[in-house]
Amino acid sequence: MQRLKDKLALVTGASAGIGMATARALAGEGARVVLVARRLDRVQTLARELPGARALALDVRDGAAVLRALENEPFDLAVVNAGLGLGMGPLDEGSIEDWSTMLDTNVKGLLHTLKAVTPGMRGRGRGDVVLLGSVAGRQVYPGGNVYCATKFAVRGIYESLRVDFAGAGLRFTTVDPGMVETDFSRVRFKGDEERAKKVYAGVHALTPEDIADAILYAVTRPPHVNIGEIVIWASAQASTTVVKRAT
Ligand SMILES: NC(=O)c1ccc[n+]([C@@H]2O[C@H](COP(=O)([O-])OP(=O)(O)OC[C@H]3O[C@@H](n4cnc5c(N)ncnc54)[C@H](OP(=O)(O)O)[C@@H]3O)[C@@H](O)[C@H]2O)c1
């Protein structure tokens, strides 16, 4: 039995990593998935693989474009996942441009997506919204500063959604992973493969599929059950600063 048969789902950041694995997991349960990312070729390739899927080129930082593309779609569920880290170092050495990109994508992009999908859900009296937070939204780590701040903001927005939509029939979930091996570090370190590899050296990191599995769990509970917060660590990661690496 397909548990999401005929449901219309949105996944932002579906061109890679957690978003791509989540799109596959949702489609595997019968959902028709709208795949959003800037790299159209990648979401188009994925759309060809997933029955009923559609690809959309969108930069979530562009609020007007996000509203135009998504506000009239009757989504049953939305996974608000698009996000990135850029740079890692002391705050006073940070780049204003990197800060803007992170804040505009991880916070404002998430808000743009919510503004596009939640009014329709409220009108229909149902809908599942999953936000990609992070353990970095619960504990800071040296050099994480602005990226961590964006994920603390995601937690604040998650808690606000719960109270602002109380009784409206919607369910909200924040999924907060630790280390997941994706392109995340490659993007963060701007293509420095060596530095990106070091993040996961000697650690059996989480996979995008591990996170997709948790998202699928949350959105397939019976209607009276709202899984609120899911924190997922790699077993070797005790906190954002303590990681046991095999030598
Ligand atoms: N990897 C980890 O360890 C980890 C841990 C905790 C939380 N997270 C969170 O998980 C989410 C997904 O990250 P990931 O690890 O899967 O990284 P990833 O493999 O680099 O994927 C990031 C996705 O976000 C999309 N994206 C970035 N900027 C965008 C924009 N302006 N407009 C539309 N889409 C945009 C990218 O697509 P395009 O480049 O094609 O636009 C890509 O599909 C992020 O929110 C991240 O903060 C990751």
> What is the gyration radius calculated from CA atoms?
17 Å
Task: Note poorly predicted spans.
Answer: none
CATH class: Alpha Beta
Provide mean pLDDT, rounded.
98
Spell out the blueprint of helices and strands:
Elements: E1 8-12, H1 17-28, E2 32-37, H2 40-49, E3 54-57, H3 63-70, E4 77-80, H4 96-124, E5 127-132, H5 145-164, E6 170-177, H6 184-188, H7 193-199, H8 208-219, E7 229-232
Parallel strand pairs: 1-2, 1-4, 2-3, 4-5, 5-6, 6-7
The structure holds NADP nicotinamide-adenine-dinucleotide phosphate (NAP).
The site of NADP nicotinamide-adenine-dinucleotide phosphate has 31 residues, from helix 1, helix 4 and helix 6.
What does this structure look like?
With 247 residues, the chain is α/β, with parallel strands linked by helices. It has a single domain, classed as Rossmann fold (3-Layer(aba) Sandwich). Helix 4 runs parallel beside helix 5. The radius of gyration is 17 Å and the shape is globular. Bound molecules: NADP nicotinamide-adenine-dinucleotide phosphate.
Concise structural overview:
With 247 residues, the chain is of the alpha/beta class. 42% of the residues lie in helices and 15% in strands.
